[in-house]
Amino acid sequence: MSDIFPKWTNQLPGKVLIGAVMVGTAVTAGLWYYFTPKYTRVGYQPVQPVSFSHSIHVEQLGLDCRYCHNAVEKSWYSNIPTASTCMNCHNQVLATDPRLALVRESAQTGKPIPWVQIHKTPDYVYFNHSVHVNRGVSCVECHGQINKMDEVYHAKPLSMAFCLDCHRNPGERLRPPDKITDLNWKWSDDPKSAAQLQKTRGEEFVRDWNVRASQNCSSCHR
Amino acid sequence: MKTIPPPCPEPEAGPKYWRSMDQLADTPEFRQWLEREFPQGASELADPVTRRHFVKIMSASFLLAGVGLTGCRRPEEKILPFAKMPDNYVHGVSQFYATAMPTRNSAIPLVVQSDDGRPTKIEGNPQHPDSNGGTDQFAQASILNLYDPDRAIRFTGNGSTKRREEALDFLTSLSTQARANGGQRLAFLLERSSSPSRARLQRLVSERLPQAQWFVYEPVDFDIHRQAATAAFGKSVAPYFKLDEANVIVSLDCDFIGTEENSYINCRRFARRRNPEKSAGQPMSRLYAVEGLLTLTGANADHRLRIPSSAAQGFAARLASAILAQKGGGAELQGGVTKLSAALAGQDAWIAECAKDLLSADNAGKSLVLAGHRQPLAVHTLAYAINAALGNIGTTVVLHEVPESKEGNISQLAQALNGSQIDTLVILGGNPVYNAPADLAWAQAQAKAKSVVRLGYYEDESFPANGWHLPMAHYLESWGDARTADGTVVPVQPLIEPLFGGMTELEVLSRIGGLEKTSPYDVVRETYRGLGSDGEENWKKFLHDGFLAGSAAAPASVQLNGNACAAALNAAPAPQLPSRDRLEVVFHRSHSVDDGRFNNNGWLQETADPVTKLTWDNAILISPETARELGVGEYDEERRGNKVRKGLFKNQIVELELSGRKIRGPIWLQPGLAKDTVGLALGYGREKTGRIGRLDTGQPAGFNAYKLRASTADGFAVGGKITPTSETYQLANTQEHGSMEGRPIIREATKKQYDEHPEFAKNMDLSSPAHMAHIPKDETGNPKMIYPRPVYNGTHQWGMSIDLNACVGCTACMLACQSENNVPIVGKDQVTKGREMTWLRLDRYFAGSVDDPQVAYQPMLCQHCENAPCESVCPVNATVHDEEGLNLMVYNRCVGTRYCSNNCPYKVRRFNYFDYSRRPRNALYRDPFTARTDGEWELKRWFKQPERGSIPDDEWELLKLVRNPQVSVRMRGVMEKCTFCIQRIEEAKITQKVKAGPSGDVRVPDGTIKTACQQACPAEAIVFGDVSDPNSKVSQLKKQARDYAVLGFLDTRPRLTYLARVRNPNPAMPDAYKENPGTLDEYIKDGNTSPLESHAHGTVVGPGAGHGAQPATQHKAEKGAH
Fold first, then answer.
1. A contacts of B880 (beta carbons < 8 Å)
2. DSSP 3-state assignment of B978?
């Protein structure tokens, strides 16, 4: 009797198996590595309806973060400013500039400006801004150098690992409470002494302020 | 609100992506890289390794460019800020407003939490002079009624939808007409109300429409208290009961803990005197209850006499006789007393000893006899006579003056209607077609009016086909006012604009009366002006505080009018006693749906009635003894419950006939009922109700007991006859077993036993050395832990203590937890499978004889064990322990193994077998390929809107609003359980840290955090706090001798411990259990050593077990009570 199957099918199951394992490993490794928030979130820079530039308003003009994001010290939610906040200045500055048309329309009619949300944690994560801002964590730690951004992009991964990195060692990230919104601030210009000061002063803060950055699930997941 | 919006299409100016810091920095090197097709040196890559590596990396990046960066990112979401910031509003910070819930002739003062401009949680107002912040179960659940999709949302005229303006025009024309003829042939049918504004409007409108007739009808009416007091004392007064001033309380069929008015006040005052240690120098009180049905008051009584309700007048008469014989006086009452005494034969010793207790010198002026609202006037009169003789008037029962009630009753109105005397009938609230007395044939009577104007919350049975229906506003959307039981005026302040343009009673009355000021705000403001101390600042304070300081009614000085009392007694009809062929039918207010007004409230329908543990239905309650005699139903003696077949209650349907009217319903055998008594809960069986009141099958939940209820006998009637049928009906009951079977889950002793052996509760269960000797111990003397445990070094250590003496079983805590934590309801079918989702359940156990049982309640919730059996078995580590002692549940990690629930010895973990929050309850089992919504495959619909769920739109839009934004809503496949309100704990910790700022003052002061159940409990039975602080309230309670842990021998070391129950029986009474309480008897009979024998109890296991407040691991070796 002649062979039903050609010879090469002898090795087929083995090849399929090995191939599947290789592909599976590659896909898993790829997902594991590239689909972490470090890759999928960092760099997200959507186009906003109004081309607001933080670098102009903060670096050049010197506005404090809390002038617009005024609820950050009271609430879990750091608010996007209302159109009336913008109009505080822009009813005189660039009062007829077409780039601010949406803002003027919003202040006039009450129609909200549809800002695209960049920083968002999943629904099962309950993050609270006020407790971080009031306890020595600067905006720059999680949001990056927003003061230098023309268009805001997602600078840090904001994954659970990122949060835990700080919570496991809060002394490395704390700074004097009045320097929270000074995003260019450093302990010192010399990096070596800056690192040294961060370590010593950070430990001091953790001790004095009774900082218990909880690593338990209850601090974020309810 | 955190929801994920549907995936948005890509905007034309697409999102910019950059793949490296170089690109962002836009360095010249990168420019070069970009512009050249191949980077410098790429063609020179001869080395196969580097070349291969390069190609691999580049191809991976290009792959991601197409796949990862656009498709795998979360959908684009928008933030929509305000254009102008509203005053006093910060998104994410809740606001609280004081208001009140009007309840018939009283009100409950409330503070309501508002998130994003809508009310989300109701709590009591602790600043109110007559409240400790507790509420009852109806107040907690009433918020769900606000967001009820079945409520009336439109104006209708003659059955067709009209616009609001047309309705208002009609009211104006009605008003003009009425004023022209002085209100002739116009009648108003109102509900009972304590509102000073409504009273003022009634007066004003009466002046303008002098011929108009006014009637008040409440199906469950507590006005008898005022009527009886007025008759007995000769002026218009109403009683206020100060149960905490009484050493001895006698309840004559008065369920003051459960279904009487102001139960939240009664629970608080009663529980205050149930502390076996002297509380504020007062000894523990004693409660005697005389009743026909088993009620919460009877469950908490130290002595209970089980007699039919119609015999209660006999008891009252004989008690009066005994008291007056001693105290003298009351000769004019003798005739009536003798006549009524015939209602009760026997029980001489019971009555004599009870009277002796009342008469004892220690209790002079410190006793209280209460009559229930179902009892006839004679019984109330006798109660007042006894109270007066004992000197209680002014101490335990305070009378204060109230305006006279001049309205007619519904029988008179029916007469007027049938006599064609009424052209226009205005019904404000209420549902008379459903709940009017059956002998009035109200539906036909109402139709005799030429036109009916009805203000109703639902388009229900009383929806007028010949007239107008106006949608009523919920009290959370209305301006109004009320008086609480002590007379203090409270505002009813809206938290949200009427969702559907509803109107209030005040507005309709003012419009019909043609008053200039018709807006309810103006009406209330005007009333406030008349109360004295007006002014904008005072008005704001009134609204802010939630009450008007100093407006409590002053006690009236009264004298008992002996002749009036005698007249009342003589006028009373001769008592009729039930027998097997003439059963006594008692119509009682349902603990779940009230008189039917909460019939469409899912939370209340699913909360088990504390006595029967039935959900979603009512039943015909009879005692096992009577059932045996009649040959109906089956009782399982061993389990102390109705017979169960394969875990299901399929009870026999019987027909009950009373005075020629018949109803059908399932029988339920309830221990504790008197012989020949039938209990019917009102409020069920509604024909025209919403999707909750009609079960998922479409049939009304329960049967309508109002069909048997006549105006002459609205409390109870004798003459019922039961005929069994061969059909059965499935009932959903949450507790099959009624017996603890000798296990010391609830531990109780009598006061005498407690005085001699205060630590009796610690001497029960298996914690003696003989059982524990073989287990290796650590340095604290506790068994060595098998698994590594988390270190308890948190700033606080949370724990809770529940006082079983204070817990009366009112279920307010269950509703509060459901409201606070977004706990879903599952529907009747799932409850029969035991899948009810309440995190906190109220276990009820019977002990003693089957027919005359003792009842004990215990709230059971997650014990937050330090050595939690659930944590070590979770394969994905979804349930872990906090450094502050909490057992946490991480929903996003849970895969639904259910091993944790399997291992939990308390069975407090609830599993979401289905997506209860987003699937309709009658479509839970359908899969994505067979389920269809509007003809569309469920799977397809899901792709379009993953978060939406398949609940109908109107229900979805409203139910979204009732959810608490601080707590996750759980999906199918996730385990959930009590978290000790972690959201409240975290909020308090965060607030404290924000306040501390750069300082170390991060400890939350004791009393700041109140769990939802603690806050709602009017009896203050639940106390939560920091056990590492020896001065906190919870630490003090855990130090008490009565403290014990349930199932402590399992070494779970729960942070929640209970304070054992102490009953206070009178040793001279002839009751059976004066030796040991029932559960203690069962425990000893089961073969255990009595805890009252002074044996060395050895090492006691458990954190709170007499070792002070430290959790086990931080505990230093102490001698303790060995």
1. 216-217
2. coil
Chain A closest-CA separation from residue B60 CA (Å): 9
In this prediction the pTM is: 0.90
Q: Check A210 against B966: CB less than 8 A apart.
A: no
Query: What is the rounded CA–CA span in Å between residue B336 and residue B334?
Result: 6
The neighbouring-strand residues paired with B645 are B648
CA distance B438 to B706: 7
Confidence at residue B467, expressed as pLDDT on a 0 to 100 scale: 93
B81 and A79 in contact by Cβ < 8 A? yes
Diameter of chain B measured on Cα atoms? 124
Which chain B residue has its CA at the smallest distance from A88's CA? Answer: B84
Compare CB distances from B17 to A43, A112, A128 and report the shortest one's residue: A43
How far is residue B892's CA from residue B908's CA, in Å, rounded to a whole number? Answer: 20
- How large is the average pLDDT for residues A74-99? 94
CB-CB contact of B933 with B880 (8 Å): no
Average pLDDT score over residue span B65-89: 75
Evaluated on CA atoms B383, B389, B392, B394, the torsion sign reads positive
Distance from CA of B83 to the nearest CA of A (A): 5
Indicate the DSSP class of residue B257. T
Of B68, B72, B882, which has the smallest distance from its Cβ to A218's Cβ?
Answer: B882
- Tell me if ipTM is over 0.90: yes
Whether the CB-CB separation of B622 and B630 falls below 8 Å is answered with yes
For residue B984, give how far its alpha carbon lies from the nearest alpha carbon of chain A (Å).
10
Reported confidence tier of residue B798, pLDDT bands at 50, 70, 90: very high
Band of pLDDT at residue A181, cut at 50, 70 and 90: very high
State how far residue A59 is from chain B, nearest Cα, in angstroms: 17
pLDDT digits (tens, 9 = 90+) for B1064-1085: 999 899 876 667 888 888 888 8
Helix (H, G, I), strand (E, B) or coil at B659: coil
Closest residue by Cα to residue B293 from B284, B283, B301: B301
Percent of chain B exceeding pLDDT 90 equals 73
Give the mean pLDDT of B328-356: 91
With 60 as the cut, is the pLDDT of residue B659 above it?
A: yes
Among residues B189, B165, B271, B84, the alpha carbon closest in space to that of B1023 is found at: B271
Helices B377-390 and B312-327: crossing angle in degrees, nearest 10, is: 20
**Contact between A221 and A125 (Cβ < 8 Å):** yes
pLDDT tens digits for range B685-716: 998 999 999 988 889 999 999 999 999 888 99
The minimal CB distance from B91 to the residues A79, A85, A117 is found for: A79
What lies within 8 Å, CB to CB, of A168 at 6+ separation is A213, A215
Nearest Cβ partner for B982 among A40, A116, A222: A222
Residues from chain A contacting residue B77 (CB–CB below 8 Å)? 116-117, 120
Domain boundaries, chain A: 13-42, 120-220
Q: Over the stretch B138-178, which tens digit does the pLDDT of each residue have?
A: 999 999 999 999 999 999 999 899 999 999 999 999 999 99
At residue A11, φ and ψ (nearest 5 deg) are -90, 0
Reported confidence tier of residue A37, pLDDT bands at 50, 70, 90: confident
* Cβ-defined contact of B18 to A43 (cutoff 8 Å): yes
Give the residue from B821, B961, B1065, B1015 showing the smallest Cα distance to B124.
Answer: B1015
Question: Residue A208 and residue B1002: Cβ atoms within 8 Å?
Answer: no
Contact B1000 A209 (CB under 8 A): yes
Interface test with B, best of A214, A217, A220 (most B CBs within 10 A): A217
Q: Determine the residue among A218, A219, A220, A221 to mutate to test chain B binding: the one whose Cβ has the most chain B Cβ atoms within 10 Å.
A: A218
Yes or no, beta carbons of A47 and B16 under 8 Å apart: yes
